[in-house]
Design brief:
CATH topology of the largest domain: Rossmann fold
Number of strands: 12
Oligomer: single chain
Number of helices: 15
Strand content: 5-15%
Order of helices and strands: HEHEHEHEHHEHEHEHEHEHEHEHEHH
Mean pLDDT: 96
Number of domains: 3
Bound molecules: 1,3-dihydroxyacetonephosphate, iron/sulfur cluster
CATH architecture of the largest domain: 3-Layer(aba) Sandwich
Distance between the termini: 41 Å
């Protein structure tokens, strides 16, 4: 019997206690991405980048996986754990990269490139993963693409900016699907340059989902986990952070004496560096999804079986 089913969500600190109780009752593990709101990061069992969270999902012996992230992340956890229940606090937590690469259009695109291997960024649907040879994240994209011989033609999808950064770094041609992250593509180069002029001692750390015009100003380019490691290790006292603003919570916790400066988007009137999908999850929705054991992620079993193969290959390659 679910003892919490009739309760309304408690307020404040009680919500933390209630989530903790449910975690024990359900034998659940809570996985949270660095872009989640601070309270969610603080209550999670694991906070990480996409790769660390996929690794945690692959290794958990919990019976229920509560994924505080976006849909493709929870879907990946379900593909890795077909017999476990996977919950996502808000089913509307999508991703512009995943939405921008519908499986039928991707199949038609791939038909134009016979003989190519397909490397897909984890930010895509299960159906798109099922058409891929190997999955990558921003944390291992260079390593995954390098696992193919230099003369192997490759289609890279769905993020053209991550793909073109990998192509530049590895000095090899990649056929790119024309997708982008709606958060990382709107950082303003003009405003970043102005910010650097205002803070001449600051270093710039950027995510490879940003366009080249932004990345050319970066001292460090990497996944959210790599950006956090850079922030810990660098000597600089000021860091301009060019990725989703949720990362600032962990970064400030790990570097209380450093000044973190979020890079601005190109529209002064919006919080463009907040991912609207990641921020759909709230602490209250996290509690409710555990109390009601819904929304639950399901994946069509034949699609899940096909998608599991390239996900496993990625995990074997590692970081
Ligand atoms: P990483 O977690 O690989 O840094 O990717 C960031 C992202 O945008 C996830 O959606
Ligand atoms: Fe998708 Fe961009 Fe949001 Fe990450 S930050 S979930 S890539 S829209």
């Amino acid at each position: 019997m679910n003892l919490h089913a009739s309760r309304t969500p408690p307020a404040g600190g009680d919500l933390f206690d209630a989530i903790d109780d449910l975690r024990r009752e359900l034998n659940a593990v809570i996985l949270a991405h660095y872009y989640q709101e601070p309270d969610i990061q603080d209550i999670a069992d694991h906070v990480g980048d996409s790769l660390a969270l996929a690794q945690a999902a692959a290794g958990t012996d919990a019976e229920v996986i509560v994924f505080a992230g976006v849909h493709f992340m929870a879907e990946t956890a379900k593909i890795l754990n077909p017999d476990k229940q996977v919950l996502l606090p808000d089913l509307e937590a999508g991703c512009s990269l995943a939405d921008g690469c519908p499986a039928d259009e991707f199949a038609a695109f791939l038909a134009k490139y016979p003989g190519h291997k397909v490397v897909s960024y984890i930010n895509c649907s299960a159906a798109t993963k099922a058409m891929s040879d190997v999955i990558c994240t921003s944390g291992n994209a260079l390593k995954v693409v390098s696992s193919f011989p230099a003369d192997q033609p490759i289609v890279f999808a769905p993020d053209r900016f991550l793909g073109s950064w990998v192509a530049r770094k590895l000095k090899r041609d990649l056929v790119l699907w024309p997708g982008s992250c709606e958060v990382h593509e709107v950082f303003s180069e003009r405003r970043l340059v102005e910010l650097k002029a205002l803070h001449p001692e600051a270093v710039v750390a950027a995510h490879p989902e940003c366009p080249e015009a932004i990345l050319q100003h970066a001292d460090h380019i990497g996944s959210t986990a790599a950006i956090l490691a850079f922030a810990r290790d660098c000597e600089a006292r000021e860091i301009i952070v060019v990725t989703e603003s949720g990362i600032l919570h962990q970064m400030q916790k790990e570097n209380p004496d450093k000044v973190l400066i979020p890079a601005p988007g190109n529209d002064e009137s919006c919080n463009c560096n907040e991912c609207p999908y990641m921020k759909k999850n709230t602490l209250e929705k996290l509690y409710l999804c555990m109390r009601d054991r819904t929304p639950e992620i399901t994946v069509d079993p034949p699609v899940a079986e096909r998608a599991l193969v390239p996900i496993r290959r990625m995990l074997e390659i590692g970081r």
